[in-house]
Specification:
Elements lengths: L11 E10 L12 E8 L5 E6 L14 E4 H4 L6 E7 L7 E8 L1 H10 L3 E5 L10 E16 L3 H6 L3 E9 L24 H13 L7 E7 L1 E3 L8 E2 L8 E3 H13 L2 E3 L6 H16 L4 E9 L6 H11 L4 E7 L6 H6 L20 E5 L10 H5 L3 H25 L11 H13 L1 H27 L2 H51 L4 H12 L2 H62 L10 H4 L2
Parallel strand pairs: 9-10, 9-15, 15-16, 16-17
Antiparallel strand pairs: 1-4, 1-8, 2-3, 2-5, 5-6, 7-8, 10-12, 10-13, 11-14
């Protein structure tokens, strides 16, 4: 019986971006092709890999994509982790470039102080156990923690794990009736390697399947009076492939050994295709199921490219493939199928697998008992499951967006199948996730800019008013200057009239024969008519000055009103933009994964 227990803290996920500097070159004519392997250390000192980065080609100072480590995987923030940097080699023999041992808490501290940790090479035997410290360093460029739904959350929320098995019946296993055969049924009841793998893996997964009906196939054998089959029902039926429980698989396996003739070659493509069809039908029926195909084999596959094509096609489906290699054969090609060893699988058409769905374990490597075959096989199942489910959620959100928006953005009444397919490709390739993150970053930047504008706007009115007041004062001073010039001209004219009046009076004294004219002129100026003449002269000028002053004041008032109206409109726009952003965030929160409900966690964790 396997029990699972999960605390709230185990849902915390650490998101990190790691990089290295000054890595040693292991390749002869080029730089290294580095990748990281993060492992947790068991109580017995065994390293269990929990995360691997992508391979970066020809790079001495690599910076890998962000990685996610849950507390559930690590154990706790203080649990020691071993981070190893390898140089990738296509033959599977990767060169160790250095490693460090740090907990999540220590990695977080490295990020906070912006310092690196020197890599070291473990000491060889006879070197006094002194590690060789390298100039290469590991840096943590980003570290953050958030709460995410875990593998157990989804199982408690109603997701089922459906177990499927495919058994190798090729002749390389040996005659089942002889003790040296990998298919030999021991009368004492001791299970062979095939039976042990079925019991250990199926014994764990059967509790997460509601009906416990498991598809079981065989491949590489010749049924009675028939050709060699590379995918036949283990129960002997021609119409259905399911058996009842793990005991049903064991009975069907034993029966098949006496009803088929071992043949060959070893082909995986047909079995994987059948499993993919079952998973595809589940998706079409909108079922909350995830399928796990266990393939047990003793030899090297002969349809490597066809198997790659089948694996790449299956990477879009809720399916993981666990491969157990039994016997002493060379399993190098199996290492190729396991995408953890390098780049993702690529089909014959050039299509790359959307995610890693394969885990291969040689049975001979886990027979010591320190790490069980189940522990090794299921180590990556949670991450493979979560990768599929989270991508599936993005697809469902997109479909709802098509329905809600009516494709108004694109001008379509409904999305075509081609457009849907293209979107799925973008989601599964990671493009859509990067686009969403980029959009979120743009929203955050826009929000910051809006806040900055809002803060600046509080200072704008006073500055504008002061500026406008200065301009108005300058204009008033200019206008007053013009009026002063006009007054000066009036004064000059008055002085001129006075001089003329004085000259006339002087002329009247000296010229008596024109006394009558002089008297008339004196009377004209003496009774104040000269002042009236001056005022009459300046009336048009005064009126023009008054009009200019009025127009100037009206223009200033209009400018101030327009300025205040513009500031009010800007404030309303900023408020609407903030409300729109808040509504968008609320809408995204509402569309998030529904919390697991309605399941009895204790029953799920038996």
């Amino acid at each position: 019986m396997v029990y699972a227990e999960e605390s709230v803290s185990s849902k915390t996920t650490a998101e990190m971006i790691l990089r290295c500097s000054d890595l040693e070159s292991k390749d002869l004519f080029s730089k290294s092709d580095p990748f990281l392997v993060i492992s947790k250390i068991t109580e017995s000192g065994i390293l269990v890999p929990i995360c691997k980065t992508e391979v970066l080609k020809n790079d001495h100072n690599p910076k890998w994509k962000q990685i996610f480590l849950s507390i559930q995987q690590v154990g706790s923030k203080d649990s020691p982790l071993t981070i190893e940097c390898f140089n990738f080699n296509s033959n599977g023999k990767h060169d160790l470039l250095g490693k460090v041992q740090k907990s999540l808490a220590e990695l977080e501290k490295l990020h906070s102080v912006a310092m690196g940790e020197s890599l070291f090479i473990p000491a060889s035997v006879g070197q006094n156990h002194h590690n060789k410290v390298l100039k290469s360093q590991l840096f943590v460029d980003k570290y953050s923690e958030n709460i995410q739904h875990t593998f157990l959350d989804y199982l408690a929320g109603g997701y089922e794990l459906n177990f499927m098995v495919a058994i190798d019946f090729t002749a390389s296993n040996g005659n089942p009736r002889l003790p040296d055969s990998l298919h030999y049924i021991d009368p004492s009841g001791r299970p062979n390697a095939y039976q042990r793998a079925i019991l250990e893996v199926g014994g764990v997964l059967q509790f997460y399947d509601s009906d416990r009906k498991f598809p079981a196939w065989g491949f590489g054998a010749r049924p009675i009076d028939g050709p060699v089959s590379h995918c036949f029902n283990l129960n002997g039926s021609s119409s259905y492939c399911e058996v009842e429980g793990i005991h049903g698989i064991m009975v069907a396996y034993t029966s098949a050994l006496f009803n088929v003739s071992l043949a060959g070659p070893t082909l995986f493509g047909h079995v994987v295709t059948n499993a993919a069809q079952i998973a595809s039908a589940s998706v079409a029926n909108n079922e909350r199921k995830y399928f796990i195909l266990l393939i047990i084999t003793d030899g090297v596959i002969t349809d490597l490219q066809e198997t790659k094509d089948a694996f790449v096609m299956a990477s879009d489906l809720p399916l993981s493939i666990l491969i157990v290699g039994v016997g002493g054969a060379d399993f190098k090609e199996m290492e190729i199928l396991d995408a953890d060893k390098g780049d993702r699988l690529e089909s014959s058409t050039g299509r790359v697998a959307s995610r890693d769905i394969v885990q291969f374990v040689p049975f001979r490597d886990v027979q010591s008992g320190e790490v069980s075959v189940v522990q090794s096989l299921l180590a990556e199942l949670p991450s493979q499951f979560l990768t599929y489910v989270r991508a599936r959620v993005l697809v469902q959100i997109h479909n709802r967006m098509w329905n809600w928006l009516g494709c108004m953005e694109y001008g379509y009444s409904s999305p075509s199948e081609t457009r849907k397919a293209m979107f799925y490709v973008r989601v599964l390739s990671g493009y859509e996730e990067r686009r969403i993150r980029s959009y979120r970053l743009q929203l955050q930047q826009r929000l910051q800019q809006a806040q900055q504008r809002k803060a600046a706007l509080k200072q704008v009115p006073e500055q504008i008013i002061l500026s406008e007041m200065r301009r108005m004062v300058e204009d008033m001073q200019s206008l007053n200057k013009k009026l002063e010039e006009t007054s000066c001209q009036r004064s000059i004219m008055k002085q001129t009239y006075a001089k003329v009046f004085k000259s006339i009076r002087d002329l009247a004294v000296t010229i008596s024969d024109i006394s009558s004219l002089v008297v008339a002129l004196v009377e004209y100026f003496a009774d104040g008519q000269q002042e009236a003449a001056i005022e009459e002269y300046f009336k048009p000028i005064d009126k023009e000055a008054e009009i200019i002053m009025k127009m100037q004041l009206e223009g200033e008032e209009k400018t101030v009103r327009e300025m205040m109206s513009a500031m009010q409109r800007q404030a309303l726009l900023e408020k609407a933009e903030a409300e729109k952003f808040a509504n968008l965030q609320n809408a995204k929160t509402d569309k998030h994964i529904q919390e697991p409900t309605g399941a009895d966690k204790s029953a799920q964790r038996r």
